[in-house]
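Action item from last meeting closed. Structure (317 res):
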């Protein structure tokens, strides 16, 4: 299937990241200026309430936002935004978080993190782990303790969500972990060898070029070991005991193959895993759901599958 024509028309109007060093302040400003366009004619999804607060962690303050649905919560979703570990904040993901809150009927908690290159690894990981720890410790005031607690994220946020799950499993500091992972087109292998994946070589996604991935990874990882499981969750030898996962990939996405490999590795270690693939959309499609009909249909499908998996968790429990 070819790329959705409405989406292609939109992407043709979006400036691509230039080759060479990235001007992150300009790129952040550009991303912020485009947010009103992504909301779409229907406007923001209606939720019962929105609350902002700052979490005090050992590494500093982490900005967080809580969305409450209008109906009885069916669970809690902690969602970590993407943006190549270098772009994004709470407003960037607001329109998507509101939709997830409404359509999942879950309390949604978004969190931000210190951005690279000013704050390379492990800053984003540390902030995300602190936020995730707060969420699982406060489920009673969020969606409740008798309904599923899900951690999710898209792209770099999916990387952080997957890494947090591994860290929480391997730590004695958390009495409660998440019940499920929702990983949207995640980057799970940041090692140089990952540029050998066919999907990276194909470089077929007009919204995310392999050269841009290389620059973002370099600025995020900096002097750290790219084989650290906090950087590359795929490298973790043992994936047993991790939460069941819903992993969403796009056929043209340079990150596709590593996400598929991660799904296979989870399944091989006995982790219930669902893999969804869309061939007509690009990286970041969930944020276009308000203006691209095909992205809306796909997002609905992801939400329905997530709900089905969450319901199954409860029936098994």
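Sequence:
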């Amino acid at each position: 299937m070819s790329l959705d024509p409405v989406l292609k028309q939109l992407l043709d109007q979006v400036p691509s990241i230039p080759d060479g060093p990235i001007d992150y302040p300009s790129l952040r400003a550009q991303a912020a200026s485009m947010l009103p366009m992504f909301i779409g004619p229907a406007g923001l999804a209606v939720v019962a309430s929105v609350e902002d607060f700052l979490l005090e962690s050992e590494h500093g303050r982490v900005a967080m936002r809580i969305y409450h649905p209008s109906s009885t919560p069916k669970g809690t979703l902690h969602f970590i935004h993407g943006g190549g570990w270098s772009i994004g904040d709470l407003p960037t993901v607001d329109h998507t978080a509101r939709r997830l809150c409404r359509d999942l009927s879950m309390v949604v908690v978004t969190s931000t993190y210190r951005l690279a290159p000013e704050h390379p690894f492990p800053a984003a990981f540390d902030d995300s782990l602190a936020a995730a720890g707060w969420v699982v410790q406060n489920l009673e005031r969020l969606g409740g303790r008798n309904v599923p607690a899900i951690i999710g994220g898209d792209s770099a946020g999916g990387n952080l969500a997957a890494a947090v799950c591994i860290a929480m499993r391997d730590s004695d500091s958390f009495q409660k972990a998440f019940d499920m992972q929702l990983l949207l087109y995640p980057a799970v292998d940041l090692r140089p060898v990952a540029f050998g994946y066919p999907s990276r070589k194909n470089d077929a996604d007009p919204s995310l070029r392999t050269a841009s991935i290389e620059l973002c990874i370099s600025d995020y990882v900096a002097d750290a070991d790219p084989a650290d499981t906090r950087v590359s969750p795929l490298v973790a030898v043992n994936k047993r005991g991790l939460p069941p996962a819903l992993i969403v990939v796009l056929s043209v996405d340079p990150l596709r193959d590593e996400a598929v490999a991660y799904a296979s590795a989870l399944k091989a270690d006995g982790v219930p895993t669902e893999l969804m693939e869309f061939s007509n959309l690009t990286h970041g499609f969930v944020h276009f759901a308000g203006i691209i009909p095909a992205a809306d249909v796909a997002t609905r499908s992801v939400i329905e599958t997530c709900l089905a998996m969450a319901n199954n968790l409860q029936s098994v429990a």
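Note appended to the action item: Residues 5-316 form a domain with the Rossmann fold fold (CATH 3.40.50.1820).
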